């Protein structure tokens, strides 16, 4: 008997969660010494080279570790929320409390709530990501990039930087690093040079991390991941779960909730940060799915 699609997604997530043997809590982290803000640009749709995905990213650096995340999202969270439509809520009282309908947040630009933590001395890379209603942690080794350091130099943000060329995930990057800042880290997963990477661009011009500003760490600012409680999974298991969620977020998210839970409602966040609920969200999401079929996907990582 062929199962409905939402049942397939529920069964997959139930199986996926059954593979998880433990949950972990956020590590303490280190005080931030400096932080760097980058202008990130990525032409993620080759049909629209003139409309790249852009965002400001922040790299917080401690003595032995760093955390990379979205600075744009941090700033947006401080602004008043812009929303359209109504948030559905059940008025059925049960056991002395009201049952709220769970909400599935889908963003037009894909997964945004993530932290990327580098531990150069331990050769460790940790990614924490929110998917549906849960937070996941994926631990791997730092990528090995065979950088070729050249003699060419230029000024970036007031620092004299050296040029280096390296290949990672199918892209060749030109990076500019400064030995004056002795951190073996950089934006995103780029690392391994004898100094902080302040700028990096791939040869096609489709991906770039451009320096915007550098600041001293603030009081109580930490490199620790923001998600307090996370579930540790393998990279392969997370990628499979992520693919299922992207294909049908409503069914996949319902598979995360206990059997008998209220059917979740959709909330869709457009490119401008406006949140749509209910029927408004469904209409815009359906249009969004049609547009996705027309795009020529150009992922950040072309190959492993």
Structural category: alpha+beta
Low-confidence stretches: 1-22, 90-99
Give a count of the beta strands, DSSP E runs of length 2 or more: 19
- Summarize the biggest pleated sheet: 13 strands, mixed
What fraction of residues sit in β-strands?
35-45%
InterPro entries: GLPGLI (IPR005901)
Protein name: GLPGLI family protein
Organism: Pedobacter hiemivivus
Task: Set down the secondary structure blueprint.
Layout: H1 5-18, E1 23-25, E2 34-42, E3 53-61, E4 66-70, H2 71-77, E5 83-84, E6 93-94, E7 97-98, E8 103-107, E9 114-119, E10 124-131, E11 134-141, E12 148-156, E13 159-168, E14 171-178, E15 196-202, E16 207-216, E17 229-233, H3 235-247, H4 249-254, E18 265-269, E19 275-277, H5 278-294
Parallel strand pairs: 5-19, 8-18, 11-17
Antiparallel strand pairs: 1-17, 2-3, 2-16, 3-4, 4-9, 6-7, 9-10, 10-11, 12-13, 13-14, 14-15, 15-16, 18-19
Helix pairs in contact: 1-3
Can you describe this structure?
This protein is of the alpha+beta class and about 300 residues long. The chain has one domain (about 5-295). It is built from 5 helices and 19 strands. The protein has helices at about 5-20, 70-75, 235-245, 250-255, 280-295, and strands at about 25, 35-40, 55-60, 65-70, 85, 95, 95-100, 105, 115-120, 125-130, 135-140, 150-155, 160-170, 170-180, 195-200, 205-215, 230-235, 265-270, 275. The strands form 3 sheets. The chain has a 13-stranded mixed β-sheet. It has a 4-stranded mixed β-sheet with strand order 5-19-18-8. A hairpin with a 4-residue loop joins strand 3 (about 55-60) and strand 4 (about 65-70). The protein is globular and about 60 Å long. The two termini are about 35 Å apart. This is GLPGLI family protein.
């Amino acid at each position: 008997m062929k199962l409905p699609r939402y049942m397939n997604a529920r069964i997959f997530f139930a199986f996926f969660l059954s593979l998880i043997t433990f949950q972990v809590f956020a590590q303490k982290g280190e005080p931030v010494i400096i932080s760097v803000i980058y202008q990130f640009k990525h032409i993620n749709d080759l049909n629209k080279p003139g409309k790249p995905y852009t965002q400001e990213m922040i790299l917080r650096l401690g003595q032995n570790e760093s955390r990379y995340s979205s600075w744009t999202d941090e700033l947006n969270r401080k602004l008043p929320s812009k929303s359209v439509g109504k948030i559905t809520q059940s008025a059925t009282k049960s056991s002395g409390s009201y049952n709220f309908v769970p909400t599935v947040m889908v963003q037009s630009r894909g997964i945004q709530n993530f932290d990327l933590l580098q531990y150069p001395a331990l050769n460790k890379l940790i990614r924490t990501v929110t998917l549906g209603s849960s937070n996941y942690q994926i631990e791997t080794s730092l990528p090995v990039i065979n950088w070729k350091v050249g003699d060419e130099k230029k000024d970036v943000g007031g620092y004299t930087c050296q040029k280096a060329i390296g290949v990672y995930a199918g892209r060749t990057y030109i990076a500019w690093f400064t030995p004056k800042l002795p951190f073996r880290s950089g934006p995103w997963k780029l690392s391994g040079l004898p100094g902080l990477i302040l700028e990096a661009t791939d040869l096609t011009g489709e991906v770039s991390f451009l320096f915007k500003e550098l600041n001293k760490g603030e009081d109580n600012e930490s490199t620790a991941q923001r998600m307090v409680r996370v579930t540790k999974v393998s990279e392969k298991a997370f990628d499979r779960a992520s693919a299922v969620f992207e294909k049908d977020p409503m069914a996949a998210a319902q598979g995360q909730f206990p059997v008998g839970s209220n059917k979740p409602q959709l909330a869709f966040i457009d490119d401008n940060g406006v949140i749509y609920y209910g029927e408004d969200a469904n209409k815009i999401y359906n249009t969004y799915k049609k547009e996705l079929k027309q795009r020529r996907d150009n992922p950040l990582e072309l190959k492993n």
